[in-house]
Amino acid sequence: MIDLSASDRVRQTTLESGLRVVTETMPHLETAALGVWVAAGSRAEREAENGIAHLLEHMAFKGTERRSARAIAEEIEAVGGELNAVTGLENTAYYARVLKDDVPLAIDILADIIQNSLFDPAELAREQGVIMQEIMAAHDTPDDLVFDLVQDAAFPGQSIGRSVLGTIDSIRGFTAADLDDFLTRNYAPDQMIVAAAGAVDHDALVADIADRFSVVRDASVDPAIPAQFDAGRNLLDRPLEQVHLVMGFSGIPICDRRIYAAQLLSTLLGGGMSSRLFQEIRERRGLCYGIYTYHWAVSDSGLFGLYAGTGPEQVEELADVVMTELAQVDDTVNDIELERAKAQLKAGLMMSLESPSSRIDQMARHLSAFDRIIPPAELIAGVEAVTRSDIAELADAVFGPDRAAVAAVGPEAGLASLAVFGSNRST
Amino acid sequence: MIDLSASDRVRQTTLESGLRVVTETMPHLETAALGVWVAAGSRAEREAENGIAHLLEHMAFKGTERRSARAIAEEIEAVGGELNAVTGLENTAYYARVLKDDVPLAIDILADIIQNSLFDPAELAREQGVIMQEIMAAHDTPDDLVFDLVQDAAFPGQSIGRSVLGTIDSIRGFTAADLDDFLTRNYAPDQMIVAAAGAVDHDALVADIADRFSVVRDASVDPAIPAQFDAGRNLLDRPLEQVHLVMGFSGIPICDRRIYAAQLLSTLLGGGMSSRLFQEIRERRGLCYGIYTYHWAVSDSGLFGLYAGTGPEQVEELADVVMTELAQVDDTVNDIELERAKAQLKAGLMMSLESPSSRIDQMARHLSAFDRIIPPAELIAGVEAVTRSDIAELADAVFGPDRAAVAAVGPEAGLASLAVFGSNRST
Question: For position A282, which CATH number holds?
Fold first, then answer.
């Protein structure tokens, strides 16, 4: 049996600098996943900085005092390893996936690129071009674009509502000094978490990290501005075959005790083939191919979202049925579907415990939100404790036709029926 | 250490019916991945059947004598399991991911839906609508669509060149009798492989499978028609921000001894951040965000492909640089990059050995191509044995400006410079 307390496999150390390290040793593995989470995502950006957290993440791969951009790529791939990075709302993560013996190399490279990047002007100009191409690619992909649109509809005029990628214009304007300023404010050791799982030794890793993450810096992070949800509307006319639709409702912050209920509500509404929306909209009515719900949470806010893609003639029926389903879940949730949703979350957790990549994500999320790793048994108990009335109360608090932020991309004929939702901010 | 021979963990049994079973027990896991591979993908379709293999895969989830569509979804998700399926060129795979104790249930459901589906007319009509939505979604996603276009440019007028999804018209026309006919010709036990990995017991699984896969049938598979590669061109004018481009060259069949060289060539050209094309086109010239190469192989053919997305003004330069890089690799491949590509493939293999989902895919692929599981040590030896001259010979045999099948989706201004390639089949 997997030890659900996992207490002897998970170890945590805080360095003098404030940098936190957490590891889970999986003794049967020959490979490791590790990453550095910096508490600086797009929400840390000032209004004129839209896209700078992501640009900084890209520039981390473009050269340091010790390594050219090419050397960074060649050193990690020479041992068959992989580097990657992703910029989120509240953090930016730099990942490595390597064989056991290459963990020290991965730490050395990650520490180097996070602390010592140079922002060479020629490299910066080229990378601005690369990100402009990335923005164009996102614009061409309706089920990327619609998620940016709903973010703006739900959190207008706030950093949490702006695209992580920035805009062509904002990206063009950034200089090395802008990057330095953002980095200096946000990239301090006490804003960083290193998480590793798989074939790793905690003490050796901590020693390596203490050696390599030696830059001393006091963060001067801007005071957090609370997220303000708005039931806005953002419809974009494009000559496509489908309307790609997202509806978003104000969600639950990560530390709120209702987070388990929010995950269960999302699962039973649109988390699998047996979920209410999949059964009613795809299986019974054949209205779409892709439909699902999700719930994301940050420190003070969250979003309960629903994606569906359908033909322009089917949008009105689909949106009506969605609103009906959301409106009636509080009165009709039953024990069978709640137990099924619990089984889905618990099995998903068991599977994630066997994957070092999933495990580091989860541990870093816990450490940043709760300053401790929640043991699997406690997570399972949290899921088990949710009752039908918890779900009903939450659904009642979250859903309602005048509470939906709505975004869609598609042909004009398919957008008209969505004009009943929210206040328009289409451009 | 992982036992690279893996001989005592991998076991294989052929049932009297001809159905083959292969398992790898991973004693430290509490979950299992399993799947059934049927040797009937889109290549098994006759001309009038385009899309029927994929429709049949969808209809497998729409009800049997014992289970309604809803019951199939509810039974697996009640234990937190997942079912999924994917239709390929030469096979269709039905997957389950479950906790240890639920392996027998997963086998029972998979056997039921693969052997006993009903093709109820009302369910069929609805599912035809769902697949039409799936086709529309693929049309709206340029980096899906362009892969269908290159398949058609490279293998015109052949089942291997047609979209696995079929067309709106072909899907609309199919009846339950058509599905029965395709199933009867192709879904015989000796055309099936069951692969399982993780917390599984070989003998118990074989007994369950012998019980549940009881339908007796002689396949009457159509004689294979050899794939004929063509250097065609397929350009589609769409009002997008980028041109999404794929170039394809005739590749290496899966049983060809040059398959290791093909994988290494793809890796060193476009398999990571240190690869030639990534370095030259993204890092040195800033021409794109996404660029990568791939090589897929089937029984008698393969495709060496390259994807890139770029702005209309950059297409000409990008295509020129790609052709120059491909033309010079045979004369310039060096030991450092070859060793790096080998390290990437070997580390990727080590990581896949730790994932039950990756492992079942690999074992099913081996069994269907070689009728045995190639031990990891033999795969590594195959990679190690490739020399610079093997790479040079292969590159020389594969690449050349008049040997490229070219497909692109994007604004007309960006397509013009691609008209120098291949023979046009744009519509």
Answer: 3.30.830.10
Domain count, chain B: 2
pLDDT at B21: 98
CB contact under 8 A, A241 and B136: yes
| Pair (B302, B190) in one structural domain | no
Question: Same domain for B171 and B258?
Answer: no
- Give the Cα separation of A401 and A228 in Å (integer): 18
> Which of A77, A113, A281, A287 would you mutate first to test chain B, the one with the most B CBs within 10 A?
A77
Kindly state whether residue B224 falls inside one of the protein's structural domains: no
Among A112, A100, A109, A114, which Cα is nearest to A33's?
A: A100
Shortest Cα distance, chain B CAs vs residue A31, angstroms? 7
Parent domain of B407 = 232-424
What pLDDT, on the 0 to 100 scale, is given for residue B401?
81
Q: Other CB atoms closer than 10 Å to residue A348's CB: what's the count?
A: 17
Residue B375: other Cβ atoms inside 10 A = 16
Instruction: Name the DSSP class of B65.
Output: S
Structural domain contains residue A196: yes
Q: Could you say which residues from 80 to 139 on chain B have a Cβ atom under 8 Å away from some Cβ of chain A?
A: 80-83, 97-99, 125-134, 136-137, 139
B370 touches chain A (CB under 8 A): no
Supply the pLDDT for residue A219. 79
CA of A272 vs chain B CAs: smallest distance (Å) = 8
- From the list A30, A142, A242, the residue facing B350 with the nearest CB is A30
Say if A217 falls within a structural domain: no
pTM of the complete model:
0.95
- ipTM of the prediction: 0.94
Once rounded to an integer, what is the mean pLDDT over residues A110-139? Answer: 97
The residue of chain A nearest to residue B74, with distances taken between CA atoms, is: A274
List phi, psi (to 5°) of B303.
Answer: -140, 130
**In-domain check, residue B221:** no
pLDDT in tens, B363-397: 999 999 999 999 999 999 999 999 999 999 999 99
Task: Report the pLDDT averaged over residues B344-362.
Answer: 97
| Radius of gyration for chain B, computed over Cα atoms and rounded to the nearest angstrom | 22
Distance from CA of A216 to the nearest CA of B (A): 30
| Among the listed residues B372, B259, B257, B247, the one whose alpha carbon sits nearest the alpha carbon of residue B322 | B247
Residue B288 near residue B308, CB atoms below 8 Å? yes
Does A315 lie in the same domain as A167?
Answer: no
Of the candidates A74, A133, A351, which has its C-beta nearest B31's C-beta?
Answer: A351
